[in-house]
Each structure stands twice: as structure tokens, then as C-alpha cells.
């Protein structure tokens, strides 16, 4: 199976969003003048940025779970096709 075909695009997109939010939170204050830091937009961006770390960890867990589940299903299907099915009366 092609490695790129087995990736989940929505998890990659959410991971990218988490990284952008993390960079934005850490760099946003440096590039803004002092009056701009007192706006509701800045406060909102900080609140959204606080979720980027937990979001990244959650996405990593979802990705790991999806990989484990996919490998488990592939292994059980292969095992079932190789072994004969026993039918008890």
C-alpha cells in the first residue's frame, strides 16, 4: 500500500492548525505594539492558542490509535483468510 494513501488528511490538517496556533501564540506578542495587546482580538488569539498544545497531543493519540486499529484489522483479516474456519455441529 502506498504510504501517502494510508495517511489521514484531516489529522494532518488539524496537526498543522495546532502548530500554526502554537507559533502564533509564542510570536504574536513580539510583533505587536503595546496598545494592540489590549484588544479583544489579542485576548481571543491567546485563548485559542492555549488549546494548541492539548490539541496536538490529542491528535497524536488519535493518529496512534488509528494506526494500531488499521494494523490490527489487517492482521486479523490476513489470519482469517489463512486458517480454515471450523464449524461445530
Q: How many whole angstroms does the radius of gyration measure?
A: 22 Å
Mean pLDDT: 77
Question: Structural class, from helix and strand content?
Answer: mainly alpha
- Residues in helices, as a percent range: over 70%
Query: Between the first and last Cα atoms, what is the distance in angstroms?
Result: 40 Å
Global morphology: rod-shaped
Order of helices and strands: HHH
List segments where confidence is low: pLDDT < 50 over at least 5 consecutive residues: none
What does this entry look like structurally?
73% of the residues lie in helices and 0% in strands. The relative contact order is 0.12. It has helices at 9-31, 40-50, 52-82. α1 packs across α2 and α1 (9-31) runs antiparallel to α3 (52-82). The protein has 3 helices and no strands. With 89 residues, the chain is mainly alpha-helical. The longest helix is centred in the last third of the chain and has 31 residues, at 52-82. The chain has one domain.
Q: Can you lay out the helices and strands and say which pair or pack?
A:
Layout: H1 9-31, H2 40-50, H3 52-82
Amino acid at each position: 500500500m502506498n504510504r501517502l494513501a494510508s495517511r489521514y488528511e484531516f489529522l494532518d490538517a488539524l496537526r498543522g492548525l495546532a502548530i500554526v496556533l502554537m507559533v502564533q501564540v509564542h510570536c504574536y506578542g513580539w510583533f505587536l505594539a503595546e496598545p494592540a495587546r489590549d484588544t479583544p482580538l489579542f485576548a481571543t488569539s491567546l485563548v485559542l492558542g492555549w488549546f494548541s498544545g492539548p490539541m496536538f497531543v490529542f491528535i497524536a493519540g488519535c493518529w496512534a490509535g488509528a494506526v494500531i486499529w488499521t494494523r490490527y484489522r489487517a492482521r486479523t483479516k490476513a489470519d482469517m483468510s489463512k486458517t480454515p474456519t471450523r464449524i461445530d455441529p
